[in-house]
Amino acid sequence: MHDPTLYIANPDVSCREEGPDGALLFNPDTDQVAVINPTGLLIWQVLADPHTQSEVAAALTERCNNVPEGQVLQDVGEFLEQMVARGFVGLYQGVAI
């Protein structure tokens, strides 16, 4: 079944890249900081535009070698769930392009 839920990075959150270590995210609405690893940073960059969980996983699979697609999909789902719960990522309510 196709997942119609679209995720997008919260535009109010600032991202400071920390070189090969990943990045720091700051949500001014909640004063929360999240430390994300390089994989989390790739997901964050993909979410500059609205994407489904499957699309995000596909983008990661393209960029990373020798990773099982099923594991990537599961890991992306867990990351998105955590980021949505903390307000760093939102559910896109507009029209998909």
What does this structure look like?
With 97 residues, this protein is α+β, with helices and mostly antiparallel strands. The chain has one domain (7-91): Alpha-Beta Complex (Outer Surface Protein A, domain 3). The protein has three helices and five strands. Strands 2-3-4 form a three-stranded antiparallel sheet. Strands 1-5 form a two-stranded antiparallel ribbon. Helix 2 crosses helix 3 (69-85).
Please give a handful of descriptors for the protein shown.
two-stranded antiparallel ribbon; single chain; 3 helices; alpha+beta; three-stranded antiparallel sheet; 97 residues; Outer Surface Protein A, domain 3
Give the overall average pLDDT. 90
Order of helices and strands: EEEEHHHE
Main pleated-sheet profile: 3 strands, antiparallel
Instruction: Provide the CATH topology.
Output: Outer Surface Protein A, domain 3
Q: Main sheet: which strands, in order across?
A: 2-3-4
- Summed up, the helix count is 3
Distance between the termini: 20 Å
- The percent range for strand residues is 15-25%
Structure described in brief:
The protein is an alpha+beta fold. The protein contains 3 helices and 5 strands, in the order ββββαααβ.
List the helices and strands and how they pair.
Layout: E1 7-9, E2 14-17, E3 23-27, E4 32-36, H1 38-46, H2 53-63, H3 69-85, E5 89-91
Antiparallel strand pairs: 1-5, 2-3, 3-4
Helix pairs in contact: 1-2, 2-3
